[in-house]
Every structure is written in C-alpha cells, then in structure tokens.
Amino acid sequence: MKMLSEEFLQTPWVILIMLGNYAFLIALFFLQRHLGKKKHRYDERYYQVNNQAKGRTWDIMLVVMLIAWPLVVMFDGISFSFFLLSILYVLHCLIYGVASAYYNGRE
User: Fold this and answer.
1) 63 and 101 co-located in one domain
2) What digits encode the pLDDT tens for the residues 32-43?
3) CA neighbor of 83 nearest in space, from 94, 69, 97
4) Where are the transmembrane segments (predicted)?
C-alpha cells in the first residue's frame, strides 16, 4: 500500500515551495500587524466586525462541508478524501463546541 501519491513522489520539491510560501505569509502578517498597530487600526469596531465575519465564515463552511460530503462519495467513493472530509467536519464541530463553552464561561 502506497502512502504518498505518484504526483508527490515525482515532484517532492513542491512541499519546499509551500513551506516557503507559508513563511512569507507569516512574515507578511507580522509586518502588517506591526504597521497597523502604529496607525491605531485595531480599535473595538475592528474586533467586532472581525469576530462577526469569522462567525459567518464558520457557518458557511459548515454548509459547504455538508454539501461536499455527498459529492465526494459520489465522485471519489469512500476513500481518503471521504475520511479527510469527515475528520475536518468533526474538528470543525469540536472547535465550535470548545469555543462556545469558553466564551459562554467567560461572560
């Protein structure tokens, strides 16, 4: 049984490009954050809008995952993709539950 895909075995350097991209994005995040703090961009309204946007994103992602689940089964069968999507769904629900408990306990 092969663990890695044939495409990955032929081009393993793609992982290095992805890691470099992640490092670049992290550096860009910290630079943007630093400049934003200097210009006082992060006030109470920013956090309120950001939190509402994150909440809606989680809601929409749940719907997208529930639509993708049967599509994965129809086109790919019950394979790695199905189990990966199932694990992501369980993680989504667990993170939502933990965050809800945390914020409810905080108020």
Assistant:
1) yes
2) 989 888 877 778
3) 69
4) 12-31, 57-75, 81-103
C-alpha–C-alpha distance, residues 58 and 91, integer Å: 12
Same structural domain, 92 and 76: yes
Closest by Cα among 33, 9, 13, 11 to 21: 13
H/E stretch holding 104 reads helix 80-106
Residues 98, 73 share a domain: yes
* Per-residue pLDDT tens digits for 60-80: 988 988 898 888 888 877 888
* Residue 85 · residue 66 · CB < 8 Å: no
Q: Torsions phi, psi of 3, nearest 5? A: -90, -40
Write the pLDDT tens digit of every residue in 43-60: 888 788 888 888 888 889
Q: What is the pTM of this model?
A: 0.54
Q: Which two tokens stand for residue 13?
A: 């350097």
